[in-house]
Design goal:
Helix content is 56%, strand content 8%. It has 584 residues and is an alpha+beta fold. It folds into 2 domains: 406 residues, Orthogonal Bundle (Ammonium transporter fold), CATH 1.10.3430; 118 residues, Alpha-Beta Plaits. A 4-stranded antiparallel beta sheet has the order 6-9-5-10, with helices on one face. The chain has a two-stranded antiparallel sheet with strand order 1-2. 42% of the residues are buried.
Length: 584
């Protein structure tokens, strides 16, 4: 053998082994995405259900592993296929595990398993906060056992009928995300909206859509970054050489970045401010959109995918919520279903013949054959999933029950489904009876020695004689207190009482929006400032407070004015006008 041939053989062997290792590393990155999904869903929902969501994401993978090893993997990657549609199960993975490992089946099993778990976990967020845990476990088992393996076999098994037609879904826009997305849509419809999400009149017509913000945008952002990081393994693990891997990394970066910028601008123009949660959704939407064609599109094509994904996710999320009144707390349908379909179709339009995959997109060649195949493939995958998952949810709803009771939903699923008092261990400080520095305070009762109290002058209750006392009660943001206090001092107010309160109320100021829905007033921490005046004009206090507190946004506060009969200064016993004057 010539030296050049030996060098080539060694190089090819090393390269093959290196990409085999990268294949398994990619599987590990995809597994890490389970944590990303858990964080996104937890952050976008309320704290009382955080433990339940973590549990569902954990069990998606664990239940999926059990059923996938029992039957799912054999259905998906069977060597024998009936009409290219249904794999004939081969249980070698159970009966001869050692031989299965030697045959090189283990890497394929692990890789396809983590993809299967991804399809299952997409549904968790759309059905969050009101779904029975048992019912969710049953659904998760069904999708990993039958639904995903069969349609994924069409796409990735060499004998699958879509593969033989030329259907291209490199990493799963259709086989994973569209499947999880349409299942999320069906599940959200069947389980119904969360309590308080939609106000209805007596006829059942929705009269108002209420925003229910998530409890921790920071958790959602962390999950988004974890998912983006894991997506390099999701899209890149199956790369066959260094050139294709580099190209995949480029498109996997460009599409979500452009999608996020697009959504930021779109929501900024539409609502007056860039929407944080929508931008997080947009990053994921761009990743979903590029997943099918990450090896077939160039950077320009990835950017086009990103622009469409960035607009599409906002339109679909708001369409479902504001028009169709389908409650999807995390935007799973807009991210995965809509962009899974778009990403699959985009391959038929934008595939660059010069890209590593070498496919012929219609906009480059004028040939619409690939576009037709992509449209047929995604339609059949969606039809299969819609039928099987509708039957699954219907059976679960009629037997085990799909939704928790009203009382359980109000209390939160952490407590009712898992016996968990709170996923955050209720970090509110407890009352422990500590003195906090007041150990030496004088307790006054009965006769008090003159050394412990100032002399008290006893006076008779004076006739107001035309002197009017007015109490002004101001409820406002705590952040504005220092400015309010300074302004009050400037107009002659020398005393005030401040209390921490919870406040809410309908406002006519500038509205705020969460995911396109106007945020209604809710109980929020406030401060209450009480001032009693006689000398300082009431109108001066009111106008000064309005000037200091006004921003035009919900929560600026309210001012209440009351008549006061009398004022008594406890220390001196003075009453009436003199009691309000800080002079000896």
């Amino acid at each position: 053998m010539a030296t050049q041939e030996i060098v080539k053989l060694v190089t090819d062997t090393v390269t093959k082994e290196a990409f085999g290792i990268w294949f398994l590393i990619g599987a590990a990155l995809v597994f890490l995405m389970q944590a990303g999904f858990a964080m996104v869903e937890t952050g976008f929902t309320r704290a009382k259900n955080a433990g339940n969501i973590i549990m569902k994401n954990l069990m998606d993978f664990c239940i999926g592993t059990v059923v996938f090893i029992l039957l799912g993997f054999s259905l998906m990657m069977a060597e024998d296929y009936a009409f290219g549609v249904i794999g004939i199960p081969n249980l070698k993975i159970l009966t001869d595990f050692g031989g299965f490992l030697k045959d090189g089946g283990a890497p394929s099993f692990v890789f396809n398993l983590v993809f299967c778990a991804t399809a299952a976990t997409i549904v968790s967020g759309a059905m969050a906060e009101r779904t029975r845990f048992l019912s969710y476990c049953l659904y998760s088992g069904v999708i990993s056992l039958i639904v995903y393996p069969i349609e994924a076999g069409w796409v990735w098994n060499p004998q699958g009928w879509l593969v033989n037609l030329g259907f291209h879904d490199f990493a799963g826009s259709a086989a994973i995300h569209a499947v999880g997305g349409i299942t999320a849509l069906i599940g959200a419809i069947m389980v119904g909206p969360r309590l308080g999400k939609y106000n209805k009149d007596k006829s059942g017509k929705v009269t108002r859509v209420n925003a229910i913000p998530g409890h921790a945008v920071t958790l959602g952002a962390l999950g988004c970054f974890i998912l983006w990081f894991g997506w390099y393994g999701f899209n890149g693990a199956a790369a066959w050489d260094g050139e294709s891997l580099a190209s995949i990394f480029v498109t996997t970066t460009v599409a979500p970045a452009v999608a996020t910028c697009t959504t930021m601008i779109f929501t900024w123009v539409k609502s007056g401010k860039p929407d944080v949660s929508m931008c997080l959704n947009a990053s994921l939407a761009g990743l979903v959109g590029i997943t099918a064609g990450c090896d077939a599109l160039n950077a320009v094509g990835a950017a086009i995918v990103g622009v469409v994904s960035g607009i599409l996710v906002v339109v679909v999320v708001e369409l479902l919520d504001l028009k169709l009144h389908i409650d999807d707390p995390v935007g799973a349908v807009g991210v995965h279903f809509a962009n899974g379909v778009w990403g699959t179709i985009a391959v038929g339009l934008l595939a660059d013949p010069a890209a590593p995959a070498g496919l012929k997109g219609a906009l480059y060649t004028g040939d619409f054959r690939l576009f037709g195949v992509q449209a047929l493939g995604i339609s059949c995958i969606l039809a299969w999933t819609a039928v099987t998952m509708s039957l699954t949810f219907l059976i679960i709803k009629k037997t085990a029950g799909l939704r928790v009771t009203t009382e359980e939903e109000i209390r939160g699923l952490d407590a009712t489904e898992h016996g968990l008092p709170g996923a955050y261990a209720d970090f509110a400080p407890a009352v422990d009876g500590s003195c906090y520095g007041y150990d030496d305070a004088v307790v006054v009762s009965g006769d008090v020695p003159s050394a412990e109290a100032v002399p008290v002058r006893t006076v008779s209750l004076p006739d107001p004689g035309g002197v009017k006392f007015t109490k002004i009660e101001i409820v406002c943001r705590e952040s504005r207190f220092e400015a309010l206090k300074s302004a009050m001092m400037d107009i002659g107010i020398t005393g005030m009482t401040v209390s921490h309160v919870l406040g809410c109320g309908a406002q006519k100021g500038k509205p705020e929006y969460y995911r396109g829905v106007q945020i209604e007033a809710t109980l929020l921490p406030k401060i209450q400032v009480d001032i009693v005046v006689s000398k300082v004009p009431v109108r001066a206090v009111i106008e000064t407070a309005k000037k200091v507190l006004y921003t035009g946004h919900i929560g600026d506060g309210k001012i209440f004015v009351y008549d006061v009969e009398n004022v008594v200064k406890v220390r001196t016993g003075e009453e009436g006008y003199d009691a309000l004057q800080d002079v000896e």
